[in-house]
Amino acid sequence: MSKPWWPSRYGQADQKGTLNEITPEKLVQAAQLVKLGKTYDLGHVLDEHVPAFPGRSFHQRLLTAAHQVNRRRPDAGTEGWGENNVNWIIDELSGTSQLGTHLDGLNHLQIGDRTYNGYRLADIVEEYGTNKLGIDEVPQIATRGVLVDVATLKGVRRLDAGRVITVADVESALDRQAMRVARGDALLLHTGWGDLWMQDNEAYLSGEPGPGMEVALWLVEQGVALTGCDTWSYGPVPPEDPAARFAVPQTLNVRHGMFIAENLVTSELARDGVYEFMFVLTHARLRGATGAWVAPVAIV
Predict the structure, then answer these.
(1) Phi/psi of residue 31, nearest 5 degrees
(2) Alpha helices per DSSP H over 43-146
(3) How many domains does the chain divide into?
(4) How many CB atoms lie within 10 A of CB 266?
(5) Are 243 and 64 in contact (CB under 8 A)?
(6) Residues 33-86: pLDDT tens digits?
(7) Is the pTM of this model over 0.85?
(8) 199 shares a domain with 131
(9) Nearest to 90 by CA among 123, 56, 128, 60
(10) What are phi and psi of 277, to 5 degrees?
(11) Are strands 259-262 and 226-229 parallel, antiparallel or unpaired?
């Protein structure tokens, strides 16, 4: 039986988790990091061919007849509606939110049937999603971002699957970059694994390097608001403990309310040696959703 981890240190009704660490002062400090007016897109293009964990999928199709129907309107022009011949097309999307570059909600993972702050699935699950901890409760995010380039630290293009990133690795990379982590930061890890995206999807999904449990607890101690990696989950696969799968994201998400972004594009930041930036992540506020497709950016 797991020891209770609730109520949260942010309050027994809290749904924002570690995003509470992003204060107005933190946002002002982040904005002051913008000197060049250059942006780095940290999100992958999303389509039906992206690598996806079993049971997850994405579909998009064009859905319209307007370009034909408009020609038959009483006030139609020669090729569309009106003298200006206006037409339009629209598309329809279906898919799971936990694929592509995405942000996990605090309702995504559980320990047994309890989520962050001890909410029970029996109490919060609805047909549309959950009535607590949905992505609609997650504020839009802007804060200081820090990239930790572990691949370059180790002198490799890409860390191996199952490689456990330690606190010593993170601190050594930060020392090499002359950086420090502060409360409210978004800390992103570059492992090089993202280079396999859409190049060898089978290899990409076969495993991954990632931060171990030691790093997870270190992130909590540092007051990090959000973390993420250039991998499809967060944490080494195969795991440190063969009997505890996905324990790192589970611990961060459920016990500590820390938000995790997955499938990030970090290669350009690493290539250019950009380790500090204003990090911005916005998302559609889908009620009760367990995740959101996102297109985060780093601005310098």
Answers:
(1) -60, -30
(2) 66-69, 121-124
(3) 2
(4) 26
(5) no
(6) 999 999 999 999 999 999 999 999 999 999 988 989 999 999 999 999 999 999
(7) yes
(8) yes
(9) 60
(10) -165, 170
(11) parallel
Residues 25 and 138 in one domain: yes
The three-state (H, E, C) secondary structure of 248-276, written as one string: HHHHHHHHHCCEEEECCCCHHHHHHCCCE
Smallest CA-to-CA distance from 39 within 279, 273, 283, 261 is with 279
Do residues 159 and 105 both lie within one domain?
yes
Tens digit of each residue's pLDDT (9 = 90 or more) over 148-207: 999 999 999 999 999 999 999 999 999 999 999 999 999 999 999 999 999 999 999 999
Residue 8, beta-bridge partner list: 11
Tokens of 137: 């409760």
Looking at the domain assignment, is residue 10 inside a domain?
A: no
End-to-end CA distance of the chain: give it in Å, rounded: 47
Strand partners, 298: 40, 279
Residue 236 has which token pair? Answer: 């080494």
Pairing of strands 276-281, 141-149: antiparallel
Residues 85 and 224 in one domain: no
- Tell which residue, 54, 104, 90, 61, has the closest CA to residue 234: 104
Residue 254's domain comprises 17-55+96-299
Name the token pair of 249: 């994201």
Q: Where a domain ends, among 94, 122, 155?
A: 94
Q: Are 8 and 117 in contact (CB under 8 A)?
A: yes
